[in-house]
Amino acid sequence: MRSEADKRRLNLSAGAASVTVALTLVVLKAWALAQTQALSIAATLADSGLDLLVSASGLAAIAYAARPPDEDHAFGHGSAEDLAALGQALFLVGAAAAIGGVALYRLASGGETQLHAEGSGIIVLVISIGLTLALVAWQRHVSRRTGNRVVQADSLHYVGDLVPNLGAIVALWASATFGVSGVDSVVALLAAGVLAVGAVRIGRGAWDALMDRRADPALIAEIMGAAAAHPGIEGCHDLRSRMAGGRVFVDFHVEIDGALPLAEAHEIAASLKRRLLADHPQADILIHMDPARGTAAGAGRAGGAGQGPKAVSAARTGRPES
């Protein structure tokens, strides 16, 4: 098993490689755009520009993740990732609108812009695809060994970048072989659509996290199921969750035999937490212990006959007992 220091080094190496590749692609595609005047390359350039922002923020997030919560940020600093993602989504929408607008104008006007140096553009795109494939291979190697979700997400994003690059190659080939430059506008329009869809997906996830939306219902159901089946747990309730960056914050109540010594009850809850964290390392879990219904401690704490921890929980949260 790798140490945490080894995992951090691997994750940082993947983040640094991502930034290096993205910066290289931006420079190469900017040169290719100046040489060819191809909108399809402009679309891939905008996408690579976004990749550079995403990769840089991902690298910062990986480095920043090692910092523990402080007095001013008791839940950590993960929301900075969501703010960055929201800004990236807005940038992507603007780029998609600009490229799509020019492509529609060219198609509607019936005029075709003569492309130049198609061979040079194709060479740049082939190099871009090779660099992207090499980066994805390294990212997947790292993610298999560390389980880092930032690296996994970045890898998936670069896989999606292969389609616009292939489309741009087709557009340049059609121009060089048949003298048809209209394909460039069609490819650019499709690439702009891909960019817009990506912007919506990234922006929606960031917005949900900033608004403290609950975690994935499937994750919630899995955690509650594991808690209910854990030895010594007689019930669980009042689960709350929210997201911040790559972290998921979860807190809930478990019901434990109130006649047990405090140390033994605490160990039951602690063992449950260790199990959940092993299965969900991205989670931050807080477990509250309540005496189970029907135990002497549970009845005494409830303050009267017929009242168990459910009534106590309702009083604490302000929600009526169901």
Q: What does the radius of gyration come to?
A: 26 Å
Mean pLDDT: 77
Strand content: 5-15%
Count of helical regions: 10
The CATH class of the largest domain: Mainly Alpha
CATH names the topology of the largest domain as Alpha-lytic protease prodomain-like
Shape: elongated
Major sheet characteristics: 3 strands, mixed
Order of helices and strands: HHHHHHHEEHEHH
Q: What is the CA–CA distance across the termini?
A: 47 Å
Fold and architecture overview:
There is one protein chain. This protein has 322 residues and is mainly alpha-helical. It has 2 domains: 4-210, Alpha-lytic protease prodomain-like, CATH 1.20.1510; 217-317, 2-Layer Sandwich (Alpha-Beta Plaits), CATH 3.30.70.1350. Helix content is 70%, strand content 9%. The chain has a 3-stranded mixed beta sheet. Strand 2 (247-256), helix 8 (262-279) and strand 3 form a beta-alpha-beta unit. Helix 1 packs antiparallel against helix 4 (118-146), helix 2 packs antiparallel against helix 5 and helix 3 runs antiparallel to helix 6. The model is unreliable at 300-322 (pLDDT under 50).
Give a short synopsis of this structure.
The protein has 322 residues and is mostly helical. It has helices spanning 4-36, 39-64, 79-109, 118-146, 149-178, 182-210, 217-229, 262-279, 296-302, 309-317; strands at 235-244, 247-256, 283-291.
List the helices and strands and how they pair.
Elements: H1 4-36, H2 39-64, H3 79-109, H4 118-146, H5 149-178, H6 182-210, H7 217-229, E1 235-244, E2 247-256, H8 262-279, E3 283-291, H9 296-302, H10 309-317
